[in-house]
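Why predict the complex rather than its parts? Because the way molecules touch one another can change local conformation, and only a joint prediction can capture that. The input here totals 852 residues.
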Amino acid sequence: MLYFTLASKAYARNLQYRGAHMVHNIASAMFGFMYACIWLGLGADYALGDYGTQGMVGYIAFTQAALWVSSFVTNGLGIPQAVRTGHISLDLMRPVHLFSHLMAKEWGQIAYQFVYKSIPIYLVYYFAFSLQLPGKAVTFLYVAIALAGAAYLSICINYLIGASALWTTESSWLYWGNHAMINLLAGFFIPIEWLPGWLQTIAWWSPYPYLLYVPTRIYLGFDDVSYLWGTLLWCVLLTLTCLLATGFLRRKVEVQGG
Amino acid sequence: MIEVHNIRKEFKTPVVKEGRFSGLRTLFTREYRTKEAVKGISFQVQPGEFVGYIGPNGAGKSTTIKMLTGILHPTSGHVTIRGMNPHKERRSVVNNLGVVFGQRSQLWWDLPVKDSYDILAKMYSVDVGDKERRLGQFAELLDLQAFWETPVRKLSLGQRMRADLAAAILHDPDVLFLDEPTIGLDVNAKRNIRHFLKLINEQFGKTILLTTHDMDDIEQLCNRVMVINNGELSYDGTVNSLRDTIGLPTVITVTFRGPFAIPEQFQRQGNPAVPIRVTSSLDNTVTIEVNRREMKTLDIFKELGRWGELDDIDMEDPDFEDVIHKVY
Amino acid sequence: MTTRSWLSLYALLIRTSIKSRMQYKFNFILASFLAALIQISEFLMVAIVLFKFGAIQGWSMHEIGYLFAVMTLSKTLYRTFADEVHHLEHYLVNGELDQLLTRPMPVLLALMPQKFRIMLGEVLQGGFLLWWSLHGMMAAGQVGWSAVPQSLYIIVTGAVILFSIGLATATFGFWTTRITELQNLTEDAARTAAQYPLTLYPKWMSSILLIVVPVGLVNYIPSLYILRGELGVWVLPALAGVALLCLCLSLKFWHFGLTKYQSTGS
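Output of the joint prediction:
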């Protein structure tokens, strides 16, 4: 129940900034529109693999909307700020585990972004590019699982980035670095199979493809449901890492007082 | 030196609508709530004055200071400092202004204290000779040497405030604005800062306007106090006359040896004819309130002596804090 | 304050800014490494597409590389000197702008040197890409040596235009306090769009990118003349004129915005 309260508070908190978020939506929609235009331009001269021009536009539309679920989470889950203000010691004193506490808040944030960002943005593309929805209902179920997994992975990654704030003042660079990796390795703009071989190898050894590429492929109706096992594996691995990191973090705060 | 004529400041904040999916509505129709933070304040400060500017949180103190320093533009009215408008001629005005915001430092966070002074000296075109001479002076008065080479982020609050004060007067301004310079400091640090402020006011003739929540600052430093409440000046005069205006009573606790009797006229509450008011009576201890402007101390003791055999008397003059509380 | 004393102050502030960055060596190395990583991945996004497909709508690999390089270098120039303009939100939220307003110099000039950013990675990458694309086009006889000074010239005018856009965007912060979202639109999205030839986009969008948020004037329009001999030599002086106009307009807007500044809290 506590976790639900945390999540719904985080959701409600965002309602204050709707004006700014609207501008953000326009920016985000423009980004996707621009990338779609590039693929449309390329599609005029070249065949675009499995996807075809319309398929690539659908690909971009979905990744751009999914970005708000699986990439744009709070920088370091707010830990860097808590470290700067000294709040972190307070947070560690609470009777809930820091990881689950912050995660609950972040789920509220993600829910908000899904409702107010992903859906409107996708709707714009749906009409602008006359996209098609998946034919089978079960696809939606798999996509939902894939996106939920992606959101969870993203929360874990940002928790680790946040934890690094105790050791470096430049953790925001890690956040941006993570974004750059998502752009490149998660198949955000270019589907992973078109990356050079060495980069594909790196990508598949990382959790990044499960953030955008896998949900998008499933959504577009490719038979990639078995990839969900990869999502699960990374969820387990990153959860363990986060728990380990909390241990280090606690010790660091106890020794140095934040 | 400082002339303020009927300045007002309004802040507009958009009203956020509540309810589900109201984002779109907020986007298209914007309502503003106007808050009048300062409602027509006028005053003048003469050269060499040390003025305390007090008021509860949110009364408009900082807003006033920010309008005087050119940070905020008043909605209406005008300000002149040494005959110049701090908004139109901001740069010439601030050249002769020292400002300390107690809540945040103007020093460079990561740099040793002395490096900040190098930068400030350059910024205000203070030549090297003057800089060294003044810093030498301040270093002695404020005991800066101890942390000369320390990065600002590692200073204690008291040290930081001392360093900030030196920074504010490095360019030898005539006017100083100090916004809560003693906030959060311990007794010792406060004493240091007050000593220094008194000195630069009395010996160097600096005009100082100080906001604070610490009434000891006001009592010990200021020859004039202005009280702002709800955006309006509610008092402007000397500290002593402020105390008199309010006329708070002195609290006296009397212990009697053996039996005593409180005359009936004093037992009735709120009898304006008698200057002594009994507030409590427990065992053989009685607490009374007397306004000492209405009754001399000796007369009070005589009167009490009639009630019974005195064992011990404890007198407490009105606290300045309470005086202020009453003004607010 | 004279220009000379301001310059000497600026130099001092830059030195101290570097000095304070160097106090945290690990952080400095980490930040530099990550900045390079981000830069490389941004470059790879374009390079992979070019590598896989070659030309986009009649623009060759070298030409698109050139667009990207000019944009990167202009942005680098702008951000090296005026990174804090981009980060104005921080000053608005923390009320640190109050401090700057009590300085005896124009607020903008007090703001700019607050932090000096060393962007070596961007310079190297942009420089390499510029060299690669110009070299390729020279070998093919598409452009001559005169393209080199012309490119340097448009990098400077481009930086002025980007600075003007950044300043105008930041100024909105005096009303809205939050500007990150708007910057995302006018700076990031617009700049990314102009890394590709504007012909890719529908008319309304390319018009926006040329008139409202004129990022197209940074690299696309000058490239039409420098690389393809379209338009005419008048483009170059006209660019300087437009850049100055943008600068004047955004400075005017900035000064107007400053009078609306609502300092935060106590």
